[in-house]
Amino acid sequence: MSAKIISGTETAKAIREELTVEVAELKDKHNIVPGLVTILVGEDPASQSYVSAKNKTAKALGIHSEQVTLAADTSNEDLLALVEKYNNDDKINGILVQLPLPKHIDEPKILNAINPDKDVDGFHPVNVGRMVVGEKCFLPCTPHGVLELLTRSGVETSGAEVVVVGRSNIVGKPMVNLMLQKRPAGNSTVTVCHTRTKDMAFHTKRADIIIAAAGVPKMITADMVKDGVVVIDVGVNRIGKTESGKAILAGDVDFDGVKEKAAAITPVPGGVGPMTITMLMKNTVQAAKQAAGLI
């Protein structure tokens, strides 16, 4: 048996096509143009690449996009003032402060300063709390993308045994919460594993669905899964370089081995990765509609 490949690239493309239509309708029917600002502090190459991709995607969808790049030695006070400026800017529906921030910046204080109604990353404690109790909110982009992949691939989650490997605030913890809620792509029985779990294979062998997000390359191997499992690999680990200097990437799952036992699996790259920016755009459109009282 060889697994069905769940393509995040194709799924993201379909969602972006839907968003393009939705953004055009908002402009034509309501004179609304969703707005997103991305704030980058410093010159980290990976962060620069991410921010550039976010702006490029926004513009392609018809979303108004602004980018602010600040010096690495920017003070907490100046960054807070900038966030407050965009909190009060009616043209901007979504504020994204690119992480990680320089060490001297009080990251929680900055994120908490963002208006929760413009927190399109879904990191503000207000939105985290709304998510936990099942209220309408901005879902964190990567877990939201995983839900879309499961739903659009026709994977049945209701009653399924789901193992989430990882416990980060960005992926693992929200993923656990979303999978157990009474909602589409939920209603699962969820087990949490992490790098300190003593016998991870004991848990993963029981899983109908494995969501791997621990940041350890190829930690889930074929002998740790049962036949017919669905595997969502969130991990993106750089394990080397090609002769031309291009990064060689691996997920948290040993793709070549596990795909021979799995019913379906996401690749790395081309799996969850393309979904994250797409869900950021979806949240930005949601923010614009909420601000206008349309939802």
UniProtKB/TrEMBL annotation:
<comment type="function">
    <text>Catalyzes the oxidation of 5,10-methylenetetrahydrofolate to 5,10-methenyltetrahydrofolate and then the hydrolysis of 5,10-methenyltetrahydrofolate to 10-formyltetrahydrofolate.</text>
</comment>
<dbReference type="GO" id="GO:0006164">
    <property type="term" value="P:purine nucleotide biosynthetic process"/>
</dbReference>
<dbReference type="Pfam" id="PF00763">
    <property type="entry name" value="THF_DHG_CYH"/>
</dbReference>
<keyword id="KW-0378">Hydrolase</keyword>
<dbReference type="InterPro" id="IPR036291">
    <property type="entry name" value="NAD(P)-bd_dom_sf"/>
</dbReference>
<keyword id="KW-0028">Amino-acid biosynthesis</keyword>
<dbReference type="InterPro" id="IPR046346">
    <property type="entry name" value="Aminoacid_DH-like_N_sf"/>
</dbReference>
<dbReference type="InterPro" id="IPR020630">
    <property type="entry name" value="THF_DH/CycHdrlase_cat_dom"/>
</dbReference>
<keyword id="KW-0658">Purine biosynthesis</keyword>
<dbReference type="Pfam" id="PF02882">
    <property type="entry name" value="THF_DHG_CYH_C"/>
</dbReference>
<keyword id="KW-0521">NADP</keyword>
<keyword id="KW-0560">Oxidoreductase</keyword>
<dbReference type="GO" id="GO:0009086">
    <property type="term" value="P:methionine biosynthetic process"/>
</dbReference>
<dbReference type="GO" id="GO:0000105">
    <property type="term" value="P:L-histidine biosynthetic process"/>
</dbReference>
<protein>
    <recommendedName>
        <fullName>Bifunctional protein FolD</fullName>
        <ecNumber>1.5.1.5</ecNumber>
        <ecNumber>3.5.4.9</ecNumber>
    </recommendedName>
</protein>
<feature type="domain" description="Tetrahydrofolate dehydrogenase/cyclohydrolase NAD(P)-binding">
    <location>
        <begin position="140"/>
        <end position="291"/>
    </location>
</feature>
<dbReference type="GO" id="GO:0004477">
    <property type="term" value="F:methenyltetrahydrofolate cyclohydrolase activity"/>
</dbReference>
<dbReference type="InterPro" id="IPR020631">
    <property type="entry name" value="THF_DH/CycHdrlase_NAD-bd_dom"/>
</dbReference>
<feature type="domain" description="Tetrahydrofolate dehydrogenase/cyclohydrolase catalytic">
    <location>
        <begin position="6"/>
        <end position="121"/>
    </location>
</feature>
<keyword id="KW-0511">Multifunctional enzyme</keyword>
<comment type="pathway">
    <text>One-carbon metabolism; tetrahydrofolate interconversion.</text>
</comment>
<dbReference type="GO" id="GO:0004488">
    <property type="term" value="F:methylenetetrahydrofolate dehydrogenase (NADP+) activity"/>
</dbReference>
<feature type="binding site">
    <location>
        <begin position="166"/>
        <end position="168"/>
    </location>
    <ligand>
        <name>NADP(+)</name>
    </ligand>
</feature>
<dbReference type="GO" id="GO:0005829">
    <property type="term" value="C:cytosol"/>
</dbReference>
<dbReference type="InterPro" id="IPR020867">
    <property type="entry name" value="THF_DH/CycHdrlase_CS"/>
</dbReference>
<comment type="similarity">
    <text>Belongs to the tetrahydrofolate dehydrogenase/cyclohydrolase family.</text>
</comment>
<comment type="subunit">
    <text>Homodimer.</text>
</comment>
<keyword id="KW-0368">Histidine biosynthesis</keyword>
<dbReference type="InterPro" id="IPR000672">
    <property type="entry name" value="THF_DH/CycHdrlase"/>
</dbReference>
<feature type="binding site">
    <location>
        <position position="236"/>
    </location>
    <ligand>
        <name>NADP(+)</name>
    </ligand>
</feature>
<dbReference type="GO" id="GO:0035999">
    <property type="term" value="P:tetrahydrofolate interconversion"/>
</dbReference>
<keyword id="KW-0554">One-carbon metabolism</keyword>
<keyword id="KW-0486">Methionine biosynthesis</keyword>
